[in-house]
Amino acid sequence: MKQSFYIYSAGRLERKDNTVHFVTAEGKGRYLPIETISDLYIMGEVDVNSRCLNFLGAANVAVHFFNYYSFYTGSFYPREKQVAGKLLVKQVEHYQEADKRLTLAKAFVQGAMDSMYRNLRYYNSRGKDVSSMMGEIKAMERPLSRAITIQEVMGCEGMARKAYYSAWNTIVDQEINFTKREKRPPTTMINSLISYVNMLIYTKALGEIYHTALNPTISYLHEPGERRFSLCLDITEIFKPLVGDRLIFRLLNKKQITQKSFTEGLNYLHLKPEASRLIAGELEESLKKTIMHKDLGRQVSYQYLMRLECFKLTKHFIGEKNYEPFVIWW
């Protein structure tokens, strides 16, 4: 079974026969059979040559690079193996035609709002009074339905998320003093955690898009831009609360991540390696968990749910079935 591999040590990544060979700076080696790798996460200072990248590309293995501060810097994205010209035309058409783009943008935000609401509902039923924030999120559904521009849709999403984040100080059993979401750069422990986990989920979505014929650079809620796979941003709006935020709540409430998980003197910008490994490992386990899918009638993993969103988008583009975002039904 294929799996994600994370490399935290400094060293060199090379091809060795039909395996990927990682050699640390101290000279210790590790062989990774190519057929076992779904994707690679480079978290340390690693040298890699074109021969190795060609080998990984031929095996359809993506490589995601993170810097010293655990910030995502980019991906080596293999040549697309599933290409459909007609689908690409339709995907572009749904971006260029304002009404079609607006429909999808609203769907992504509605899916995100449903996910945030259900997170709060879970904790509200367990003694954490966040009912007022739940009401604020629900109240944004009407202006969302009436929105006529992407900017208005983004505004609704921003207001819902503001209400959602205001509940975190109640949900988390640590003093996190979470007052607002900051990204560039994050200046608090909670903001750094959110950024790191969101970037990991972003790369997971990219991996699932790769297994479909969708183009990852054409998006609808987020504006397509140079040097980013913006469709991942759209899709992960739904899954960041369901997977990422739930993971953060669990790690913080179990005291597995605390202020001591960050390097002192760097204003919470740098997760210690052991904390980074813990978060990545726990996320992998969360994504492997399965649910009985009510439409498919079989068990599917949380990670595979992202691929199903891609398939639903494909059906939407070709006119087979209108896209509806994933919503928890239990």
UniProtKB/TrEMBL annotation:
Q: Which organism is it from?
A: Veillonella magna
Q: Which domain of life is it from?
A: Bacteria
**So which cofactors does this thing need?**
Mg(2+); Mn(2+)
Q: Please state what class of enzyme this protein is.
A: hydrolase
List the taxonomic lineage. Bacteria, Bacillati, Bacillota, Negativicutes, Veillonellales
- Return the protein name: CRISPR-associated endonuclease Cas1
The record describes the protein's role as: CRISPR (clustered regularly interspaced short palindromic repeat), is an adaptive immune system that provides protection against mobile genetic elements (viruses, transposable elements and conjugative plasmids). CRISPR clusters contain spacers, sequences complementary to antecedent mobile elements, and target invading nucleic acids. CRISPR clusters are transcribed and processed into CRISPR RNA (crRNA). Acts as a dsDNA endonuclease. Involved in the integration of spacer DNA into the CRISPR cassette.
Keyword terms, alphabetized: Antiviral defense, DNA-binding, Endonuclease, Hydrolase, Magnesium, Manganese, Metal-binding, Nuclease
* Family assignment from sequence similarity: Belongs to the CRISPR-associated endonuclease Cas1 family.
Specify whether Nucleotide-binding is a keyword of the entry.
no
The molecular function terms in GO held by this entry are: endonuclease activity
Against HAMAP family, the record matches this protein to:
Cas1 (MF_01470)
| Subunit (UniProt) | Homodimer, forms a heterotetramer with a Cas2 homodimer.
Which Pfam family is one of those matched by this entry?
Cas_Cas1
InterPro entries for the chain: CRISPR-assoc_Cas1 (IPR002729), CRISPR-assoc_Cas1_C (IPR042206), CRISPR-assoc_Cas1_HMARI/TNEAP (IPR019858), CRISPR-assoc_Cas1_N (IPR042211)
Residues engaged in binding Mn(2+) = 157, 222, 237
Query: EC number(s)?
Result: 3.1.-.-
